[in-house]
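= Paired protein data =
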Amino acid sequence: MLEGAISSVAVNFANEQITTASGAQGSSIRQVVRNLPSDHQEKMLKNVRAITVDQIKGAAIKQGFEASGFSPTLQPLKEFEDEYGL
């Protein structure tokens, strides 16, 4: 499933550059209008490939808790010692 998502991002980048003219236009828009570096797509694809399944699970769990009205935070176990008599 993760490989499919990565492939989808790569295909979208490729579809933006079907012809030389559309590739040049897209590059110009990214660099001039959006003020992005010329290698933005390569960096983005590299970052997408670096995402792990655990990161996706963590983000989905956090989003699920927040959608249910909770605000998850990370705390060291020391924060819970008084509550549990440790």
In short: The two ends are 43 Å apart (CA to CA). Helices lie at 2-15, 20-33, 40-49, 53-67. The chain has one domain: 2-80.
